[in-house]
Amino acid sequence: MSNKSAIGVFDSGIGGLTVTKEIMNQLPKEQIIYFGDTARLPYGSKSKATITMYSRQIIRFLLTKDVKAIVIACNTASAHALETVRKEIEIPIIGVINPGAKVAAETTRNGNIGVIATEGTIRSGIYNEFLGEIRPDLRVFGKACPLFVPLVEEGWIDDPITKEVVSRYIQELLYKDIDTLILGCTHYPLLRKVIREVVGDGIELVNPAYETARTLKHVLEEQKLLSEETTTPEHTFFVSDGAEKFRNFANTILPCEIIETKDVNIKTFE
Amino acid sequence: MSNKSAIGVFDSGIGGLTVTKEIMNQLPKEQIIYFGDTARLPYGSKSKATITMYSRQIIRFLLTKDVKAIVIACNTASAHALETVRKEIEIPIIGVINPGAKVAAETTRNGNIGVIATEGTIRSGIYNEFLGEIRPDLRVFGKACPLFVPLVEEGWIDDPITKEVVSRYIQELLYKDIDTLILGCTHYPLLRKVIREVVGDGIELVNPAYETARTLKHVLEEQKLLSEETTTPEHTFFVSDGAEKFRNFANTILPCEIIETKDVNIKTFE
Q: Which of A55, A73, B160, B205 has the fewest Cβ atoms within 10 angstroms?
């Protein structure tokens, strides 16, 4: 393992690609090895023990690829597994929740923060917990938006139906006088434009994908692990099911074209 | 196993409850043991191999309850696994696809049949295959409607947003001059009212849940397995995750109240 090694990124499926995109933008010299656990998604409704077991298997798989750092590009796995698995490996490992929470706490002026996320993330209370640790005086209002992920996966990104759905979900947060809104699911940055139209200019949108890539850059700098390659890195994408479908979707999101995705039997990485 | 044994019904989650409801209506003396694989839903996006493995585990679980027949109340599992698992067990096993396809083929006058279902079911081409076997002259037009399930699960059943989504999905089938529309996902009968508003009165809606219960009745009669109990049967509901959430939803659908649902570790039924 050296600064020439790749960065491992994983998610329950395709959501983590928004984080990958930010890493590619902010750290264009870094090679990425992505794992999407498409056979076992969604993680949102599963228990802490299950998610921790899944995360361990994926980390073991990524370590066979000699990665120098790992990004858990999934809110549920960050919430349930990060603390445990961090103690078990030697390389830096970063989740998506802390970076977003930190920036939201710095950004808010009136102390009212909204969080939109999947039902699992909202129910876990993880953003309330993290934000409370940073600034106990904050008021945090969560709202589960279970239709956002299927709308994104349907490709109805800039669409009147999506705008109506966004409007209905976000209305109750607007009544709470929030001035900062965390996009607490890795799919949601893809709805950023429509969300902006609904909330207007007075509310800061926090994109944890962007903040996570910034944190990663900072960590790699600190540990002198930044790549110094001058050739364009070749990224690799692995999934546990449906490699082709994954590739098609990924090619609509990422700034580079994915030529191939590979299937992995992740359960064998016990 | 005797005619006093229960009927096993399974689905990836709650969708199969529409089939269960029809069985309760048409076969009120039969006891039902339901399994909803809520920990591993949705099935729609998973591969044939994965769905077959899941179905095998669930069938093994249901057989421990001494069931006399099994209904795969899930289109994806019916499409991917029925043919394989039918050869592996001794009791009757029925899927939801054949009964609906049969009635649709009998119903159509102009030979143009529309099928709405999840992406997995449409991609499998299973309705085209079954309909083609019954009547090779039919023209079958499939349309995946991935937003319908989350809309139902959000409870937005009779809702302007849902009507707009239905309208957008179904428009291209209307252009094909269909006169019969199969509701090819077990959640969809819950959207029947809105679908009817969009398609008007000129199109027959086929509800495979209803037809499956009819087929089950017929099979039990033939094999002399009909229950002759005179007391009201006590149904049992098992899920692989989130028993309480399941129970709440089930109680909005079923004609009887579910008092208790139980969690099962389905992966141990290898």
A: B160
Residue A179 forms contact with B (CB below 8 Å): no
In this structure, the strands spanning B32-36 and A112-117 are unpaired
Tell me the catalytic residues of A: 74, 185
Helices (H) and strands (E) in chain A, counts: 12, 10
Burial profile A44-81: b = 16 or more Cβ within 10 angstroms, e = fewer: bbbeeebbbebbbbbbebbbeeebbbbbbbbbbbbbbb
- CA torsion angle for B40, B38, B253, A145 (degrees, to 10)? -80
CB-CB under 8 Å, B39 with A46: yes
Residues of A in contact with B50 (CB under 8 A): 39, 241
CA distance B13 to chain A (A): 12
- Which residues from chain B sit within 8 angstroms of residue A151, using beta carbons? 147
pLDDT tier, B22 (very low <50, low <70, confident <90, very high otherwise):
very high
What would the two tokens of residue B180 be?
């019969």
pLDDT at B1 over 80: no
A244 and B CB contact within 8 Å? no
pLDDT the model gives residue B255: 87
Interface test with B, best of A45, A57, A145 (most B CBs within 10 A): A45
Instruction: Tell me the residues of chain B between 196 and 235 that have a Cβ less than 8 Å away from chain A.
Output: none
Does residue A39 belong to the interface with chain B, where contact is any CB pair within 8 Å? yes
Whole-number average pLDDT of chain A: 93
Residue B32: both structure tokens together = 């039902």
Q: What is the DSSP letter of B84?
A: H
pLDDT tier at B121, thresholds 50, 70, 90: confident
How many residue pairs from chains A and B have C-beta atoms closer than 8 A?
A: 49
Distance CA B25, CA B19 (A): 10
Delineate the domains of chain B, giving CATH numbers in brackets: 7-96+210-268 (3.40.50.1860), 98-208 (3.40.50.1860)
The three-state secondary structure class of A170 is helix
